[in-house]
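May I ask you to comment on the folded chain given beneath this request?
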Amino acid sequence: MKNYLSYFAFFVFFTSLAISQPKLEIEGGNTYNWGKVNYKNSPVNAKIKLKNVGNETLKISEVKPGCGCTAAPLDKYEIAPGEFATLSVSLNISTYSGETVKSIRISSNDPQNGDTYLFIKADVYRPVVVSPSNYLGRSSINIGKQEEFSFSLKNQTDKSMKVTSVEIMPKDATCDVKVGDVLPANQDKKYIIKYTAKKGDERLNGSLKIKTNDEDAGEIGIYFYGNIVNPESTSTPK
């Protein structure tokens, strides 16, 4: 009988531990979507509630955005059962284009989900889109050999645009984008940046900045880069 009572007490104790737990729930689900937004409206903001649907105090130990473009301060880190905390999410979309997805990791004492992820999305609209990317990199660039960086500009509006300003760095880099070029409505136009590395150069950190007569397009920035190597120093001696 004594052994039975001891077993029963042991069972009740651990059953109560299993039942008494904090539990994190993100109101509205684990994904927040701003939908289609203009890059000029950066940053986009949202208030997201974190609820403790368990029956013990939920303790948030860390809120960690996946990148520097996201901020997510929390108004309190201990949430009583049935209560909320508010996560103030801010996403800088000024340099993005198209579908953008970021994540925020929320670490807590929820025994079932110690790390919970909130995904934030936005479809960022820009009048002019650079393809394949605003960032054109090379793993290595040989001294004395002309390197080419290809890209296209897509005018996503219903009106043609005219290029009004072109600035390229370094000065000995060239590009076939010219002042007066017309970007046709709803069309792509291809261009090439050319650069030849010289002896003494160690790394290329170039930029091309373009402006058009469409104020909403803003300044279009394209960045081309890579480590510069001397093929003579890496060749195998005879």
Observations:
- The chain is about 10% helix and 55% strand.
